[in-house]
Write a structure and sequence with these properties.
The chain has helices spanning 35-45, 59-62, 65-71, 84-97, 167-178, 196-202, 204-207; strands at residues 2-8, 13-19, 25-29, 48-53, 77-79, 110-111, 117-120, 123-129, 138-142, 145-149, 152-153, 156-157, 185-188, 194-195. It is an alpha/beta fold. It starts with a strand and ends in an 8-residue tail after the last helix.
Length: 215
């Protein structure tokens, strides 16, 4: 499987493009903005877009959904239902940041749940519910890869001072991420890729040197 990242929008959110050359399936993780660039990358992959997976519903992670659904109305959008409040308030949140935003039409198509198994061709990913940064935040784990949204960054973690954040839940979710094998490659919502082993050694929030706090 091939993975390509695009930093999109003014907050430089990472949209991950997962492509399986054998099946031709392409999945987008967190298409946050710049739908035209994302569509061009999908076309360049030579595959067919089959799904959109969302780690959570903050505006910088869903800003490209509306345009993508216009181009591919039959492609299902996956989101944990605990994040529906954020999905519905994303336009107002973007306005507070002064970021242009087109709200997606309607609701997501598929409700994600802990333990769900999703596929890119024959490559399987398991949904793990990791709330804290957002109530319905999930990570997609499989093939030695973790697409973790704003749970874990290289040297840092996602914010816990925004509406509906939960620092206690975030601490538990980070502990769960730390249980993944050291060699697991982490594809975060912002910034460079890393590994669980590297973060367990150098990230104070995974090494136990720092505790998560809220606002």
């Amino acid at each position: 499987m091939k993975v390509r990242g695009l930093a999109v929008g003014p907050l430089e959110e990472n949209c991950w493009i997962l492509a399986d050359p054998d099946s031709g399936d392409v999945v987008l993780v967190d298409p946050g903005d710049d739908a035209d660039r994302i569509l061009a990358a999908v076309a360049a992959s030579g595959g067919t877009l089959t799904a959109i997976w969302l780690t959570h519903a903050h505006f910088d992670h869903i800003g490209g959904v509306a345009a993508l659904k216009r181009a591919h109305p039959d492609v299902p959008v996956h989101l944990h239902p605990a994040d529906l409040p954020l999905w519905r308030m994303a336009g107002a949140a973007a306005a507070r940041w002064g970021v242009p935003f087109e709200p997606p039409a309607g609701e997501p198509d598929v409700a994600l749940a802990e333990g769900d198994r999703l596929f890119v061709g024959a490559h399987q990913f398991v949904v793990q519910h990791v709330p804290g940064h957002a109530p319905g935040h999930v990570m997609f784990v499989g093939d030695g890869l973790m697409f973790g949204g704003d749970l874990l960054f290289a040297g840092s973690i996602g914010r816990t001072d925004l509406p509906l954040c939960d620092p206690v839940a975030m601490q538990a979710s980070l502990a769960r991420a730390a249980e993944l094998p050291d060699e697991t490659a982490v594809f975060p919502g912002h910034g460079p890729t890393t590994t669980i082993g590297r973060e367990r050694q150098a990230n104070p929030f995974l090494s136990g040197q720092a505790r998560v706090v809220g606002a």
